[in-house]
Design brief:
The structure holds two protein chains of two kinds. Chain A is α+β, with helices and mostly antiparallel strands. Chain A is about 45% helix and about 30% strand. The longest helix of chain A has 26 residues. The radius of gyration of chain B is 36 Å and the shape is elongated. The chains are: A alpha+beta, B alpha/beta.
Chain lengths: ~210, ~525
């Protein structure tokens, strides 16, 4: 499935707003400037998600997962390459991880970062699209990307779509790219797109900024 | 409220968490026994009061917005690393580094019929984990410091060990020149020469590894024909391997292949790999040396394989670590410091290349594969210091300024045998005075002199009419570009690194026209 140009622009704009908020939250937390950019947004059927995600991450990945429900429901994931996750923890906390590991503390940091990012996205979706969205507590897992993607496909029998968003963290001269995935059932996805279009139309008409 | 109490009592039986329940306005409804125990506040004191009233510092520490997020339906996690703690409580581990219990907290909305009815906070005590991490970090810092001190010590040790080698070598040359003692003495001198060379190599390896570790090796890059270098090293090693009963097979491209690299360091890399094969292959074995150009990957690949004792997976994992060697329990333990391969890896990485080691196990030989980037090299060689030719007039008098009496004396003897008049001075001050009366053609001056150092000596000599035109040669244990620059600035014409190769020195002294080069390492 492909977004129309109008939908693509609208979704990208909404995610940019969310990333900007998440970046501000991370900057507050770390007392250092953190910029979060959206290099690319695309929509895929769940069966073809592997290639889309593979553009941003591969091999062993750290995945933060949150379930959300309300006006639209589904699953949100932040994926980071294992190396990228270790590096992100180091630059956010200003420390140097000994060895090539993600300790319990480091996993909590990644979980909180994922939580901030996904809450910002889902929160902005909720506010702008006038939908109430509630979220579960985030959980982190470490897996091979293939295993992680297969778990998405195997678990879901119904037709699902995935919104795949690149997430580029920039801080202290470093740049780490991960990937945000929102998996939505077909009805939630249609509702989401309709709301996005309505929001974009209202914005164009000058009703919202 | 009764339901909340029952719920909390049940949670207390499941695990050791702090459990805090509020209504939608953040008025406390539930406060479990864990919280009572650790906060010192009993349930009856907090239930019914607003959370912000009980803990006003939540707003000061900017944590109240997490509760607002929960009121909006969002679940949040507060990691210890970012926040240290949610609610202030005494630490559960006694350590001077921690004033409060370290906590990871999760705050979730309690949603009923699509409406947020309240919040649930779970607090986990992670103080013990954090205290352990802090202790480990402290120990890691101490180990790093100890390691740095060891590196500094090794660098100083290697530097100090070099000094006595110079007069010993010079002494051997003197004995060769005066040809004393007949056949047995000559054989003994050769033996001493071999052992001194071996020791000099060990000391140089030690110094190089220490410099690489401290990022103090700078390459003198130029346009090199890697095929020619490998061919030359192979030729040098053919006899050595043959003496060990090993055959050497060499496969090289017919055409030269140019890369930007430090020629001497490249030779050192190939030499160390062949030396390694020689050490760990028993007589009757074979060593294969091959060079391939990988045009597609813009790289050259050098492989050195042997039919030697091979490596276990454990040895293979640490083969490039300094001071690591094949286990001595294997029959063949050739001694050495275990620095050769560490040095090879460090030098290859300085060239932007990679090395990997392969072995199918004990008895199955080993292979080392080096890759170096193939670059479109500029034609100009950027070797920083080309030595100046000596003045056309014949050199007759040499002044040696050196505080090590043995080095000074043996140098004097050697230089005298070249046909020069030589005087020695054992300090900078003495050297300057002697130079003014002696008016030498060449001054060979140590840098590390007590009192007036070599730089000051050069400046003094350049000031005086009597010594202004002398050819000044610095001798130093240090050869970094910075050291060479300082020598030039002080007025030296040439900077030589100890131990000075006597043949090279003789060539410099004898020749008035042919150029020579010094070489910072």
């Amino acid at each position: 499935m492909q977004l129309t140009e109008f939908q693509q622009d609208a979704v990208t704009e909404i995610i940019n707003i969310a990333f900007s908020r998440a970046g501000a939250s991370l900057s507050d937390l770390t007392r250092s400037r953190v910029d979060l950019e959206v290099p690319e947004v695309s929509v895929h059927s769940i069966a073809e998600i592997s290639t889309a995600v593979g553009k941003f991450v591969n091999g062993d990945v750290a995945t933060v997962h949150q379930v959300f429900g309300g006006g639209v429901s589904g699953d949100a994931f932040l994926l980071l390459n294992f190396d990228g996750a270790v590096q992100l923890v180091d630059i956010l906390t200003g420390s140097q991880t000994a060895g090539h590991t993600l300790s319990v503390s480091a996993r909590e940091v990644i979980t909180e970062v994922g939580n901030i990012l996904m809450n910002a996205c889902l929160g902005v979706f909720g506010n702008l699209l006038h939908m109430r969205v509630s979220f579960s507590v985030p959980r982190i897992s470490l897996d091979d990307l293939g295993v992680m993607v297969r778990s998405l496909i195997v678990d879901e029998k119904a037709l699902h779509h995935a919104l795949v968003v690149g997430a580029r963290f920039k801080m202290r001269g470093h740049e780490i790219t991960g990937c945000l995935i929102l998996v939505l059932g077909i009805s939630s996805f249609e509702l989401f797109l309709n709301s996005v279009e309505e929001w974009a139309a209202r914005s164009e008409a000058g009703e919202e900024s | 409220m009764e339901l909340t109490k029952t719920f909390l009592a049940n949670l207390d039986q499941i695990g050791a968490w702090g459990v805090l329940v509020t209504d939608a306005n953040l008025v406390v409804e539930g406060w479990n026994r864990w919280l009572e125990k650790h906060s010192g506040k009993v349930s009856s004191d907090v239930v019914g009061r607003r959370l912000s009233e009980i803990y006003p510092d939540l707003a000061i520490r900017n944590l109240d917005h997490y509760y607002r997020q929960a009121q909006d339906g969002q679940s949040v996690i507060l990691s210890q690393r970012f926040h240290q703690y949610l609610l202030p409580m005494p630490p559960t581990v006694s350590t001077p580094d921690l004033m409060h219990m370290q906590q990871t907290a999760r705050i979730s909305p309690i949603v009923q019929d699509g409406q947020v009815r309240g919040t649930l906070t779970l607090i986990e005590d992670v103080t013990e984990r954090v205290a352990t991490e802090l202790e480990l970090r402290k120990q890691a810092r101490q180990l790093e410091e100890a390691n740095r001190q060891k590196d500094d010590f090794l660098a100083m040790l290697a530097h100090e060990l070099r000094n006595p080698l110079a007069p010993i070598r010079n002494g051997m040359r003197v004995l060769d020149i005066i040809d004393s003692g007949g056949h047995e003495a000559a054989e003994t001198r050769k033996m001493i020469e071999r052992q001194v060379s071996h020791m000099a190599r060990l000391v140089d390896d030690l110094l190089d590894v220490s410099r690489i570790d401290r990022g103090k090796v700078r390459l003198v890059r130029g346009r090199c024909d890697i095929v020619g270098i490998v061919r030359q090293v192979a030729q040098d090693f053919r006899l050595i391997l043959s003496d060990s009963g090993l055959s050497l097979s060499v496969q090289l491209p017919a055409e030269p292949c140019w890369i930007m690299a430090d020629e001497i360091r490249l030779a050192q890399i190939v030499s160390n790999l062949l030396q390694n094969a020689n050490k760990f292959t028993n007589a009757g074995g074979r060593v294969d040396l091959a060079l391939q150009v990988l045009r597609d990957e813009k790289a050259i690949q050098i492989s050195v394989s042997d039919t030697g004792i091979g490596m276990t997976p454990e040895t293979l994992a640490n083969v490039f670590d300094a001071f690591s060697q094949a286990e001595s329990s294997l029959d063949r333990n050739e001694g050495g410091l275990g620095l050769g391969l560490a040095l090879v890896k460090g030098l290859i990485e300085l060239h932007g290349g990679t090395i990997k080691a392969l072995s199918s196990g004990i008895g199955n030989g080993s292979e080392f594969i080096v890759r170096l980037p193939l670059t479109d090299a500029p034609t100009e060689v950027d070797r920083p210091t080309a030595a100046q030719p000596l003045p056309q007039s014949a050199v007759r008098t040499v002044l040696v300024i050196e505080d090590n009496q043995d080095t000074a004396t043996t140098l004097k003897t050697l230089i005298k045998h070249l046909g020069f008049e030589v005087e020695i001075a054992l300090s900078g001050t003495e050297g300057v005075e002697l130079a003014r009366s002696m008016r030498p053609n060449v001054v060979l001056c140590d840098i590390g002199l007590p009192g007036l150092d070599g730089f000051a000596v050069a400046r003094e000599l350049r000031k005086s009419d009597a010594t202004r035109h002398a050819f000044l040669i610095a001798q130093s244990g240090y050869g970094q570009p910075e050291d060479i620059r300082r020598s030039k600035e002080a007025g030296f014409d040439l900077h030589l690194i100890k131990p000075v190769d006597f043949k090279e020195l003789a060539r410099i002294l004898k020749s008035s026209t042919s150029p020579t080069t010094d070489r910072p390492s």
